[in-house]
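Standup notes, structure subgroup. Blocker cleared on the nicotinamide-adenine-dinucleotide input:
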Amino acid sequence: MKKIKVGLIGAGFMGRTHSNAYKSVNNIFGDEVVPELTAVADINADNAKALAERYGFQRWTTEWKEIVADPEIELVDITTPNASHCPIAMEAARHGKHVYCEKPLAMTAAEAVEATRVVEEAGVVSSVGFNYVRNPIQQYVRELIASGELGEAVNFRGMYDQDYYNDPEQKHEWRMFKSASASGALGDLASHTLSLSQYLVGDIAEVCGMTKIVVPERPDPKEPSKLLPVENDDVVQFLFNFRNGACGAIFSNRLAAGRKMSLGYEIQMTNGCIVYNQENQNQVQIYRHDDDKRERGFKTVLIAPGHGEYERFFGGAGICLGYADQKTIEVYHTLKCIVENRPCEIDFRFGMKVMQVIDAVLESAETRQWVAIR
Ligand SMILES: NC(=O)c1ccc[n+]([C@@H]2O[C@H](COP(=O)([O-])OP(=O)(O)OC[C@H]3O[C@@H](n4cnc5c(N)ncnc54)[C@H](O)[C@@H]3O)[C@@H](O)[C@H]2O)c1
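Run returned:
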């Protein structure tokens, strides 16, 4: 059994979600590698203290620099708003710490390239929080595509719609300031769809996109009579070409009335089709054109043993997993890669490629031109 001392930075929603995953990982995956919740930092002392007490971190601080410089800590986990991801990750890697960072990896592609260079040169393990890729059913889809049974991918149609900002009276938050989050729906939501497209179909070569701000001002949470500007996209839409010749399109709206967790895709293949939506995360629809003509139609495949790590949770098919389980799988992979001293599948280089597409979409929206991924 190997213990890994974890320093968590950011004690908000994702800080709680990651802490829960550290608490669950050994129940599901056994005690081959055991995370020790050593320290938590948050600029908000109440958040840091509350998280430390609730999840049993040994100490807390308001200074993230104490965590990255702490000789005891082996893994720095970053769950702060986007602007601080790379500065913290690079400092941690320079101190020889492994880094696990929430998405989107960076504010810009250039920053992501730099952070990737720093972690790779430091020789530390890096991991990025694209947890939807960790749904075991996505490993099945990836294997199905790679098998060639459905032919070649022709078209990836993806989306991520939610209605969490549908009410124009909903208060402003850091996600709407460019200084904290370079993009809006694009980095917050569509980055997840991009991670799935990249994981399942391949790297993207060029994009053509548009963005739109629908609600330009929102009440200041501290003084609701005052309005603050919404500086980044509520809606983003973009077309693209993969390097392997397939084409694609992704749509995302953070004000999409009625859509709660509509992260999904339809992958149209030369000899079949695959349809998935996160609102039914335990199933995928598969169409095989080779089926008997009289029986051609979409078939529902429920999550089952043989799909990724599903069997570590349950021995029988269709006993459903949830969002928190994806994070537990993500934490397991991160810890296992550290112990085995090998790169994570969803590492900074993977997160960097997503950032390169995000930057290209923003540039395309600005210039109204197709933009090649550099
Ligand atoms: N993978 C997912 O499904 C998912 C879901 C939600 C959020 N996220 C990502 O997680 C990150 C955090 O989002 P959230 O929803 O938890 O936000 P949040 O606002 O709930 O929490 C952020 C926390 O970070 C703290 N913080 C801010 N700046 C800090 C700094 N410099 N040092 C230390 N603490 C600091 C804040 O005080 C707050 O407690 C974002 O990058 C977001 O994109 C990922």
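Discussed briefly. Residues 9-14, 41-44, 47, 64, 79-82, 84, 102-103, 129, 131, 188 surround nicotinamide-adenine-dinucleotide (CB under 6 Å).
Next: hand off to the docking folks.
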